[in-house]
Amino acid sequence: DVKVTQSSRYLVKRTGEKVFLECVQDMDHENMFWYRQDPGLGLRLIYFSYDVKMKEKGDIPEGYSVSREKKERFSLILESASTNQTSMYLCASSLLSSRGADTQYFGPGTRLTVL
Amino acid sequence: DQQVKQNSPSLSVQEGRISILNCDYTNSMFDYFLWYKKYPAEGPTFLISISSIKDKNEDGRFTVFLNKSAKHLSLHIVPSQPGDSAVYFCAASLGSYKLIFGSGTRLLVRP
Q1: Using CB atoms within 10 A of its CB, is residue A25 exposed (0-12), middle (13-18) or buried (19+)?
Q2: CB within 8 A of A97, min separation 6: which ones?
Q3: Is the Cβ of A48 closer than 8 Å to some Cβ of chain B?
Q4: Is A90 on the interface with B (CB under 8 A)?
C-alpha cells in the first residue's frame, strides 16, 4: 500500500517567514508533486519532480521553490510567506509510466495559515 | 482558462439512488482521465480511471463514461451510500506526468 506522508497537518506562520513543507513516499516512485487546493479552484500544480534533483514548474510556481535530494523526499519551500499562500498543500507521488501520466497517490495535506 | 471543468459545485442524492457527477474538458488531446474522492482533512484518493480509447470503465458501484465527441466525462455511483459523501475531482492528462484537475463537486448522500 502506497504511503505518502507530510511533515505537518496544520501549520501557522507569520508573513515573511521561510516555510518548509516536507513530503516522504515509501513506494520508490519516480514522480513527486506539490499542489495547493483552494475552494472553487480545485488542485493546482505548483512544482513536480521526475527524478532526484530534477524539477519542473507547474501552473503556479511563483513564490515557491522545491528540493529533491533523495528519491523518497520532496520539499516545498516558501521563501517569504505571504497571506495569499494560506491554503491546503497536498503532496503526491506516482510511478514513471510509459503512458506518461499514472495514478497519483496523495498525502493527507498540510493546512498552512499565514498571518 | 480552465481546461477541466466541473460545473456543479454540489450534488445531493438519496441513499440507494444513482449519483451522477459530470466533468467537461476543452482539450481533445487529453488521453487519460481519472476520478478522485476527497474526504475532509484527508488527501484525495484514486477512485477510477479511463483511457481515451474506451468509452466506459466499471469498478463495482462506480462507472465512468467518456463521450469524446462531447468532451464530457461522467461518474455514476449506484447505489449511492452515505459513506460516498465527499468531494469528487475529475482529472485529465495530456500524455505527460501532469494531471489537470477540475474544481470538484461536493456529493452529499442523504440517509
Answers
A1: buried
A2: none
A3: yes
A4: yes
CB A9 within 8 A of CB A109: yes
Task: Single out the residue of A111, A114, A95 nearest to residue A25, CA to CA.
Answer: A95
Which of chain B's residues have a Cβ under 8 Å away from the Cβ of A50? 97
User: Do the beta carbons of residue A103 and residue B49 sit within 8 Å?
Assistant: yes
**Quick one: which of A88, A75, A68 has its CA closest to A11?**
A88
Asked if B9 and A40 come within 8 Å (Cβ–Cβ), the reply is yes
∠A50-B71-B21 over CA atoms, to 5°?
85
C-alpha cell at B41: 482533512
What pLDDT score does A17 carry?
Answer: 97
Contacts with A89 (C-beta within 8 Å, 6 or more apart), sequence order:
A6, A21, A34, A35, A36, A37, A76, A109, A110, A111, A112
Do the chains contact at A101 and B45, CB–CB below 8 Å? no
Alpha-carbon distance B42 to nearest alpha carbon in chain A (angstroms): 4
What pLDDT is attached to residue A84? 96
From CA A11, how far away is CA B75, in angstroms rounded? 34
Over residues A87-100, the pLDDT tens digits come to: 999 999 988 765 55
Cα separation, A22 vs A5, in Å, equals 8
